[in-house]
């Protein structure tokens, strides 16, 4: 089955990463700053050469809310949405698939979608090291 | 810093449009009627308007509205700072008037979002936008979901409680009970807020603003034209604005808003501090919104907002009257509240607020917020006994 990608050349690498089970972010070749979403310049140093790298997929839950109203047909309320601070730095909005408290370590999981790239979601991650 | 105070700018006319559920008018006719009323207070007519400031009136909004009003402005502004646009327009109009780019500035807006049922929590966006790709698939209702994330983070960092947030809704309702034009005047308690349905935790239904029709108009003029005013003068003493982000994941901190910068600039221009302010008209889209504003504007320290808004401080008879019309929570919220905050502040400063008149009304502060805690515009207004 062919997947439909959003018509956005800058995010194509990100969506292809989702298909491959990789959470991809941008890293500046000059100063090492990690950023997401992708841009043609580094927000930290202005550098023009940025590479896609695979993030660890681990982060800290910065905030979360439980949605009690029906918003989109894909999800039946209640469901949780949160902001995750990746260990690399960038903050992502994503679905939460468990009741991880704020401040908890969370790790990426993938939600499959019909005809479209999977979506990243996060769940509590046990500290293994 | 611009030395804007050297050439004073006054608000000499304010008006509300029809409010609540408006079925016999259009947005444009509401804006025109309110504009004419505000201009009457200013001792002027539509023909005198040479500066026009509008937002949310469609594509090229100021162009559409100017044609409808039958005017040809020489200064025009449809900057979109969301709900903060109209407080920001006082900033822009002050600059335009004090530098001679216009002499009579009209700020106007009207919405029929309630009767048109135009609210949509999933948002409207083109499929290739960043928001469509990175936010919409997660079903976070906009804007309540983003404000809920800020409230949850504030609770986590500072132990702010749902009861403290509810105090803000209760204060607004107590003011609304003194305002015959307020939409919701039923008694409301902290327990009542907490018992209302959860929308997006930790925000309950009664932590969220109304969805009503409404609008209004504000007229600003230079000192020469202020002579024709028919009401007590109100001077724009200071103003500031800023914005931090468009997507909630890009907000640097969910517990610090652009009010830090907009307030800093407004207070610096006015030459006053929070301790000098008699009353505040904060943008109360959700209960968390004024709480963050009080902290960021310096009325209390960061993290102490929960205590600050408790104990009846903001309500009638409180030490810092706020949301004195009943606010967006209980009086009216036409989608962009900022214009009505200015209207209320001016009426309080003139001493014409009737049963809800605040006891001290020499210096008032309007603080408007737009987007998802994205934009901030602060205006400090002063009752003026004589022309400068």
Which terms would index this structure?
heterodimer, A: mainly beta, 5-stranded mixed β-barrel, 3-stranded antiparallel β-sheet, about 40% strand, B: about 400 residues, alpha/beta, two-stranded antiparallel sheet, about 30% helix
Explain this structure:
The complex is a heterodimer of chains A (129) and B (388). With 129 residues, chain A is mainly beta. Chain A contains one helix and eight strands; from the N terminus they run H-E-E-E-E-E-E-E-E. In chain A, the strands form two sheets. In chain A, strands 4-5-6-8-7 form a five-stranded mixed barrel. Chain A has a three-stranded antiparallel sheet with strand order 2-1-3. Chain B has 388 residues and is of the alpha/beta class. Helices cover 32% and strands 18% of the residues of chain B. Chain B has 13 helices and eleven strands. In chain B, the strands form two sheets. In chain B, strands 3-2-4-7-1-8-11-10-9 form a nine-stranded mixed sheet, with helices on both faces. In chain B, a hairpin with a 2-residue loop joins strand 5 and strand 6. The longest helix of chain B has 15 residues, at 27-41.
Strand content of chain A: 35-45%
Q: What is the mean pLDDT of chain B?
A: 96
Major pleated sheet of chain B: 9 strands, mixed
Distance between the terminal alpha carbons of chain A, to the nearest Å?
39 Å
Instruction: Kindly state the number of beta strands of chain B.
Output: 11
Q: How far apart lie the N and C ends of chain B?
A: 21 Å
Question: How many individual β-strands of chain A?
Answer: 8
The percent range for helix content of chain A is under 10%
How much of the sequence of chain B is in beta strands? Answer: 15-25%
Quaternary assembly: heterodimer
Largest sheet, spatial ordering of strands of chain B: 3-2-4-7-1-8-11-10-9
Contiguous uncertain segments of 5+ residues of chain B: none
> Roughly how much helix do the residues of chain B carry, as a percent range?
25-40%
Computed CA radius of gyration of chain A, to the nearest angstrom:
15 Å
Strand order of the largest sheet of chain A: 4-5-6-8-7
Number of helices of chain B: 13
């Amino acid at each position: 089955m062919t997947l439909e990608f959003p018509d956005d050349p800058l995010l194509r690498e990100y969506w292809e990463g989702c298909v491959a089970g990789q959470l991809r972010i941008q890293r500046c070749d000059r100063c090492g700053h990690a950023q997401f979403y992708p841009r043609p310049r580094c927000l930290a140093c202005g550098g023009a050469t940025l590479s896609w790298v695979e993030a660890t997929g681990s982060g800290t839950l910065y905030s979360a809310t439980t949605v009690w109203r029906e918003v989109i047909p894909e999800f039946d309320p209640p469901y949780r949405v949160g902001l995750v601070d990746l260990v690399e730095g960038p903050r992502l909005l994503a679905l939460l698939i468990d009741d991880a408290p704020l401040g908890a370590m969370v790790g990426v999981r993938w939600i499959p979608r019909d005809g479209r790239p999977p979506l990243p979601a996060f769940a509590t991650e046990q500290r293994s090291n | 810093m611009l030395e804007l105070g050297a050439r004073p700018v006054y608000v000499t006319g304010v008006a509300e449009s029809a409010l609540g559920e408006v079925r016999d008018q259009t947005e444009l006719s509401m804006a025109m009627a309110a504009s004419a009323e505000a201009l009457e207070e200013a001792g002027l007519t539509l023909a005198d308007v040479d500066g026009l400031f509008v937002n949310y009136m469609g594509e090229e909004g100021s162009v559409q509205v100017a044609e409808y009003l039958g005017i040809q402005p020489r200064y025009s502004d449809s900057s979109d700072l969301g709900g903060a646009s109209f407080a920001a327009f006082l900033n822009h109009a002050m600059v335009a008037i004090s530098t001679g780019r216009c002499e009579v500035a009209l700020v106007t807006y009207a919405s029929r979002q309630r009767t048109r049922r135009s609210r949509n929590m999933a948002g409207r966006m083109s499929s290739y936008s960043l928001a469509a790709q990175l936010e919409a698939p997660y079903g976070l209702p906009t804007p309540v979901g983003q404000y809920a994330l800020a409230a949850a983070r504030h609770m986590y960092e500072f132990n702010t409680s749902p009861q403290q947030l509810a105090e803000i809704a209760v204060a607004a309702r107590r003011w609304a009970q003194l305002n015959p034009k307020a939409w919701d005047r039923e008694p409301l308690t902290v327990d009542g807020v907490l018992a209302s349905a959860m929308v997006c935790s930790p925000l309950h239904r009664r932590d969220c603003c109304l969805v009503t029709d409404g609008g209004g108009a504000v007229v600003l003029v230079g000192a020469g034209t202020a002579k024709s005013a028919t009401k007590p003068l109100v001077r724009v003493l200071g103003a500031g604005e800023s914005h931090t982000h468009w997507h909630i994941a890009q907000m640097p901190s969910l517990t610090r808003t652009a009010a830090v910068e907009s307030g800093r600039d407004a207070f610096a221009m006015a030459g006053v501090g929070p301790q000098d302010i008699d009353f505040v008209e904060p943008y109360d889209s959700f209960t968390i919104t004024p709480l963050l504003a009080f902290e960021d504007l310096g009325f209390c320290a960061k993290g102490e907002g929960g205590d600050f808004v408790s104990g009846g401080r903001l309500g009638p008879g409180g030490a810092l009257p706020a949301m004195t019309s009943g606010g967006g929570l209980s009086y009216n919220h036409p989608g962009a509240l900022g214009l009505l905050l200015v209207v209320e502040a001016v009426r309080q400063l003139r001493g014409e607020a009737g049963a809800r008149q605040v006891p001290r009304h020499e210096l008032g502060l309007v603080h408007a917020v737009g987007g998802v805690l994205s934009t901030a515009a602060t205006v400090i207004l002063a009752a003026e006994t004589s022309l400068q």
